[in-house]
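Standup, Tuesday
Yesterday: got the pipeline producing structure tokens again.
Today: sanity-check two examples.
Blockers: none.

Example 1:
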Amino acid sequence: MGEKEFVAYQGEYYTIEWYFDPKGLCQSLEYYAAMSNSQKRKLLMLFKRMGDFGKITDQTKYRNESDGIYAFKPQPDRFLSFFTSDKKIIVTEGFVKKSNKLPRNIKDRSLRIKNEYLERVKEGSYYE
């Protein structure tokens, strides 16, 4: 993929970024790249609304999944994310929703990613 492109959308309220693991891989961006153009548009409209206005009140489009994990919901896809203290939203992963409940293993993975991200930012190794 070459140079890491962290920023998915730069808004007035929030900057929305793709998460990259220590090897430089980005599951959510790879998932996004494989989506149809109409699905990409749906997600980007949600990123734009959140980035520019700071909130999405429609729970069918954006939802607090608890434990500091949030989901952008361009049906039928889901993109999990978390907020940082410096007005960023980090998108951890994308997947197709197959049931009414968020799978625990996917949420747990997002929580691990959040902790890893915060640790790597603290030690100065994330944005190299």
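Example 2:
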Amino acid sequence: MENAVVTKSFQFAVRIVKLCRYLQTEKKEYTLSDQLLRSGTSIGANVEEAQQGTSRADFTFKLTIALKEASESDYWLRLLRASDYLTEEEFSSVYADCKELERLLTSIVKSARSKSEA
């Protein structure tokens, strides 16, 4: 059975790796792209760790970190767009994927927390 958040976070990480490679080779931008590379790939790593959580609290904690990393990636993408390193076209698609991950992770974290409290 396919797990949507696992799949989407991995696909997002692949897009981020390719985007950062483009930013570094074509735009000679290293600082912001390095920050984006770290946060954007960390989402999936934390989602993977959450799958092996030793408790509901551990699972929720790891997904909360993934959500924070998604929020940070959102910031770096907006900054790269605002500083003209990304065109609107380059920005829009990857940003939409980031927002989708944020919504998905928010929903899972809220659900996991409510089950913990029950």
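Quick observation on example 2: The helical segments are 4-26, 31-51, 56-82, 88-117. The chain is about 85% helix and 0% strand.
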